[in-house]
Structure formats: structure tokens, C-alpha cells
Amino acid sequence: MQDGVLKYTSFRGDNGTSTKYNETTTANGDDEENIIKQSSPSSPSSSTTVSQNNDNLNHNVHSLNNSDNSINEKNKINNNNRSNNNNNDDDDDGNNNNSNNNSNNNNNSNNNRNNRDQDDEDSNNNNNNNNSNKNKIRGYNDNNDINDIFSINFSSWSKSKDNLIENGVSIFEESGLYKELNLSKSSIFNFLSIVASSYRNNPFHSFNHAIAVTQTIFLILLKTNLFNILTPIEKLSIIIASICHDLDHPALSNRFQINMKSSIAVLYNNKSVLENHHLSICLGILESEIGCELLSTLTVEEKEQFFRRVKILILATDMENHFTYKKQFDDIISSFSWDNLEHRDLLLIMFLKSADISNELRSFDISNKWANALMEEFFNQSDLEKLNNLPLTPFMEREKVVLHLTQVSFIEKFLLPSYQSLQNLLPSLEDFVQRIIENKEIWSNNGSSSSTTSSSPN
């Protein structure tokens, strides 16, 4: 095997292990100089694996069903039921007395009113907190704390899995989901732990990348004040999809899988190969004991809404369909309605797709590190393509890539237009657009640099 070449490996479910080889510095700061064998969780059962005939998971936004158009009304009812049933995350017996005779009805009614009054007070406090958090983001140039999840310069680079899990738990907490869905901290921790173990230790497509993307989603929702507009299920769906969107990524693209006729390319009929694989692993985790614990407070209807959104969000991260989604979103901006389910879903899709390629929102130093990491994966894939006599992917060839030009081109073609479209609907994202422009200018003036590349995630 040649030095620096990723070994072509099997996938989770093929033989229970995933193997890789590289001599690069990965996102968690480790130097891998040997073949590393990682134990994988049990492969998802056939009932949770996305089938080869994936018509029922069509991720074209125009094919979405409208079964939950009244989600806002139903969500209020579900939240009230949760509030009455369990005012303490760890108390399973909070509403046992609801079955008492009518003599207790007045007390129950008073308690319910008190709960509602408390909820109103807490809601006002949450609104104030959201506004305070929003102000923190607005001044992102004054905050260079890479450990602050409220900072635009947050960095998951070189962090340990334990630190990343801690960041993930904080995002759940600050998003208000603990209270809104009565989620327990232990269930979040357990879920994030198994997700972290299901990512490979790649230079770019790693758990570090997943947390970076999730924190970007968190920033977007804060900056636009959408934590006060989106339903709890919408918020839970996009955060879970962000964390899980690249599970078990092999650091080899869809094109490579198809040309190599890999097991997952055959399984998914060459359609959104990696995205279907990521989703399959995600569903396996969500339907495991740990996943069921995480979702245990959701109603049946809420679970249906949640799973539908997670599916369309993860599948939408296939860059092959980027311009299709971008056009669909641009077409609805002038008529966007929060009462339209398809509009809301498409907005969430654009959030995740934009966050997935958002390293240029960070300081130039941070974005530069991620760009280096991605180029290592690209170069390794190109070396493998040559070794296996496969068609070469042009923007991955060591000998032909002009790094600073590639980065500028990607920003101009993909990243900047995506955020400009979002800004057209949500003007408060102007600061994000300006940061991208600033970094593009740095790349443009750095023609002698050999440390950057495109930030495409596939």
C-alpha cells in the first residue's frame, strides 16, 4: 500500500468492522500512522435500513405529504399534555393522581393553571434568553472563544470526543429541548456517545465535523430568532439530522462508491449512496434502546413527524442535488409562508445544506484547518482511483488542483449563493454573508497558499 493512501474498506454491516489508513492529521488532532480497526455498533436491522427501492423516502420537497399541516395546533396540545404528565424530567410518577375521582378535579385544574402560568413565565424568560443569545452572535467579531457554542468562531477542531459530546449536550440544553420535550440529560448523553462511536476517525468527515455543523445550525436559529418560531419537533429533527448526517462516512465520495461498485452503491442503486448509508445508521441508532429512550416522551404522531423530517434532511445533503434544492428555495422566497409545511421543510433543508459547507463562517485560521483536512481526503481518494484504474475526480488530483482558486470557486458557486438566498428571507443573516465574503477575499489574495480547498462535503 502506498503511503498516504486511504485503504478501500468495508462498511458497517459487511463484516462488523471498518478499517482505514492515513498519515494525516485528523480533525481531532491525532496522527494516524497505522491501519486502525474500529469496532462498530451492530448493523441496523433490516426493518430500519433504508431499502434499495427508496421511493417512500423521496427527498424532493414537492413530494412531501401534508399529514401534519396543523402541527402547530397539535404541538400546543402535546406540550400541555407533557407539562401535566411530567413536570420533572426524572419523575415518572408526576401525574399518577389523574385517575382519582372527581373530588380531585378542582385541585388538578388549579395545578394545570399553575403549570400554564409557570409555562408562560418560563416562555417569557426563554424569549429573553434567546434575545440575549442573539445579541452574543451579532457581536461575533468580538468573541474569539473557540469553546463558546454561541460564538461564530467556535471550533471543534482537535477536540476530544468527550469535549464534543459535552458541546452537543449544551446545544440541546440551550435549544430549550430539555424543557419543551422533557428530554433527560442522560438520554442525550447516551445518544451522543453512540453517535460519536459511529463516526470514523477521518481527517474531515468525522464527529468533529458533525458537531461543527450542528453548532452552525444552533447559531442560525439563534441569529434568526427561530427558536421562538419552529416547533420542538422541527428543532429536534434538524439538530438530530445535523449530528447524524455523515455517520460512518468512509472519506470516499459517492462517485468513488459507484465506480468501485461498493456494497452500499449496489444496495442503494447508485442513488445518494452515502446519504442513504448515513440515514440507515442513524435510523438504527434511533430505533435502538438508546434511541427509544431519547424519544420516549414523544407522541406517536410526533415520532412520525420527527422521522419524516430526519429522513428528508439527511438525504438532502447529497451535493448532487444542491442546485435543485437551491432553485426550489429561491422560487418560494417571495411567497414564503410559515403556515406552509413544504416551505418550512425546505427552509430546514437549506439550513442543513448551508451549515454542512459553512467552514468559511469561521475565522480564517479555523476554516484553513478544515480545508486542509478535506484536501487530504480528496488526495487520498484520487490516489486510490489511480491504483484501481477508476475515472479520476478532477478537483481531487494532487497534480492539477490550484488550491486557492478552488476554494474561491466553491465559495462563489455554492456557499455564498446559499447564504444570500437565506438572507433574502431572513435579513438577520447579513453578518454571516459578510464573513463569507471576507474569507473569500483572503483566499483571493492568497494565491501562493497551498493550504486550502473546496468545502464540498461529499
Structural features, described:
This protein is mainly alpha-helical and 458 residues long. It is 54% helix and 2% strand. α10 packs antiparallel against α12.
Query: What share of residues is helical?
Result: 40-55%
Shape: globular
Strand order of the largest sheet: 1-2
Radius of gyration: 22 Å
Q: Give the averaged pLDDT, no decimals.
A: 77
Order of helices and strands: EEHHHHHHHHHHHHHHHHH
By helix and strand content, what is the structural category? mainly alpha
- Distance from N terminus to C terminus (CA atoms, Å) equals 24 Å
How many extended strands?
Answer: 2
* Strand residue content: under 5%
Low-confidence stretches: 1-8, 12-26, 29-77, 85-142, 447-457
How are the SSEs placed, and which strands pair?
Blueprint: E1 17-20, E2 36-39, H1 71-85, H2 105-138, H3 161-174, H4 177-181, H5 185-197, H6 207-223, H7 232-244, H8 254-260, H9 263-267, H10 273-286, H11 289-294, H12 300-315, H13 322-332, H14 341-356, H15 364-387, H16 403-425, H17 430-444
